[in-house]
Design brief:
GO molecular function: ATP binding; sequence-specific DNA binding
Helix content: 40-55%
Protein name: Fis family PAS modulated sigma-54 specific transcriptional regulator
CATH topology of the largest domain: Rossmann fold
Largest sheet: 5 strands, parallel
CATH superfamily of the largest domain: P-loop containing nucleotide triphosphate hydrolases
Number of strands: 11
InterPro entries: AAA+_ATPase (IPR003593), AAA_lid_NorR (IPR058031), Homeodomain-like_sf (IPR009057), HTH_Fis (IPR002197), P-loop_NTPase (IPR027417), Sigma_54_int (IPR002078), Sigma_54_int_dom_CS (IPR025944)
Keywords: Activator, ATP-binding, DNA-binding, Nucleotide-binding, Transcription, Transcription regulation, Two-component regulatory system
Radius of gyration: 26 Å
Length: 367
């Protein structure tokens, strides 16, 4: 083919160019077009679908603690650096990531998310970096762009970063250092421009000590740390419950129920192992059924009797059992991962299971 480039100028300054290509035959044109990945052509259109859906206004709460938390999100959003969001399950880590994107200079660009715990370890690399056509069995003939390419100019949110395979962490570190990727099965580096925001409900520092998370990657990600407060650590539960009741009732088209004082006290005494997500579920059931139903309610305080468990010890056991149950539910009964979530050894977890009488999904039920 014969090519020609003509500069476009304005006031003596080159502001662009027009390219012209003349092909000697139609077969040459077809061969050239076949080398252009259909997936690559689709990136600009698909980017429009990857947008943040929440903002800082969606983070409900009042008081000095929550004002400080929202201020931290505004602060880190202003800097184009990696962010590591830590917090318990259900506390609102993804909501924080959305808010950071919406507050940043990249707010008009894509917000692309990946849950590292939900993707099989052998597919995580292809999901993040994409792959060339025929790179592995079952791959598309024309290849596929990865999440880093889809997030070009915007934010890539890596949820549950603590579950990323150790073998892939070095590749992620390289991307953070030089902003380049190589697709699976590819040979050419591809430049990327995506701000990385990570979230974890696991203590990464402990995983580093255990040799399950790279120390250099941990320090590269932990530039701007954000800690999402657990619901039991907040002092605005009554306010939050009222706001959530209004929002949920409006969404369901139901009247806002009145919260009796005894129900309010039950909410205040509950341990909330599932945090805000659990509170939303409880309030949704209240709106639908008219009854407040808590899966793990602390027993009322009463004088200890001979041979009975003291009230404080009983409350501690109840909260411990709730947290163990939530961890096993989160890991679908996997005791090793549940122990990691709780920050204890597997042997300690087995002892607690025996004393608490909690059964995981791995164990058969009666009969």
């Amino acid at each position: 083919m014969v090519t020609k480039q003509v500069p476009v100028q304005r006031d003596g300054v080159t502001i662009g160019a027009v390219g012209l290509a003349l092909f000697s035959d139609f077969d040459a044109l077809k061969k050239t077009y076949s080398r252009i990945s259909k997936a690559e052509l689709a990136i600009p259109q698909s980017n429009k679908l990857w947008q943040s859906k929440f903002s800082l206004d969606d983070i409900l709460g009042e008081g000095e603690q929550m004002e400080s938390y929202r201020g931290s999100l505004q602060l880190v959003a202003a800097y184009d650096l990696p962010v590591l969001i830590s917090g318990e399950t259900g506390s609102g880590k993804e909501l924080a990531a959305h808010a950071i994107h919406a507050l940043s200079d990249r707010s008009d660009e894509p917000f692309v998310w990946v849950n590292c715990a939900s993707i099989p370890s052998e597919l995580v690399e292809a999901e993040l970096f994409g792959y060339e056509g025929g790179a592995f069995t079952g791959a598309r003939d024309r290849g596929k762009p990865g999440k880093f390419e889809l997030a070009g100019g915007g934010v890539l949110f890596l949820d549950e970063i603590g579950d990323m395979p150790l073998s892939l962490q070095g590749s992620l570190l390289r991307v953070l250092q030089i902003n380049e990727i190589v697709r699976v099965g590819g040979t050419t580096p591809v430049s990327v421009n995506a701000r990385v925001v990570c979230a974890t409900n696991r203590p990464l520092a402990n995983l580093v000590k255990a040799g399950r998370f790279r120390e250099d990657l941990y320090h590269r990600l932990n530039v701007l740390p954000i800690n999402v407060p657990a619901l039991r650590e907040r002092n605005d539960l009554s306010f939050l419950a009222g706001r959530l009741l209004s929002c949920i009732a409006a969404r369901l088209g139901k009247p806002i129920p009145a919260l009796a004082e005894k129900d309010r006290q039950l909410l205040l005494r509950h341990a909330w192992p599932g945090n805000v997500r659990e509170l939303e579920n409880v309030l949704t059931r209240l709106i639908i059924t008219g009854k407040l139903s808590l899966p793990f309610t602390d027993p009322p305080s009463e004088p200890a009797r001979d041979g009975s468990i003291p009230p404080l010890k009983r409350r501690i056991q109840t909260q411990t059992g709730a947290e163990i149950h939530a961890a096993l539910e989160r890991t679908q009964g996997n005791k090793r991962r549940a122990a990691d979530l709780l920050g204890i050894s597997r042997a300690h977890l087995y002892r607690l299971l025996k004393t608490q009488g909690v059964r995981s999904s791995e164990e058969p039920g009666p009969g």
